[in-house]
Amino acid sequence: MSPVLSRYATPFITGLFLVSLISGLALFFHIGPSGFHGMHEWLSLVLIVPFVLHIWKNWRPMTSYLRGTPMAVAVAVSLLAGAVFLLPSGSGQAGGPPQMRLAAQVLKSTPEAVAPALGQSPEAVTKALVAAGFTPMPGQSLADMATAAGKSNADLMAALLATGG
């Protein structure tokens, strides 16, 4: 490893960890600018590079950690803590940002049900969907319509937005 990389791996881990810590706390408490979300995601990914360099630089001491019980316990507890967030919440709803949950709920609806929200008649929405290559069936959900057409939900939502709504 070059001396420059060796010299900067740990300082960059520290700096990027602090950015991740502060942006993560701001996201958790819903404070600060909206840029914290992208900052947290992207710079947490960038943190991988100095982390790998740090492990490489400190490989010999790391091997003694890897053979010890504390590392096994720490990894197991960390994995269990992460797994808790993947368990179903019992609410029957998918997780994720509210706008994505709303979109998923809309996709469960029929064209007739979403037409008023788009400021369009059911006929106009159906016409736009047919023009985009979808085949609406009575009572069929938008998501099922996309699947039947071999298209994505995003394609269907784009067609809905093209109705002028």
Automatic annotation (TrEMBL):
Keywords from the UniProt entry: Membrane, Transmembrane, Transmembrane helix
Protein name: DUF4405 domain-containing protein
Top-level taxon: Bacteria
TM annotation in the entry: 12-30, 42-59, 71-91
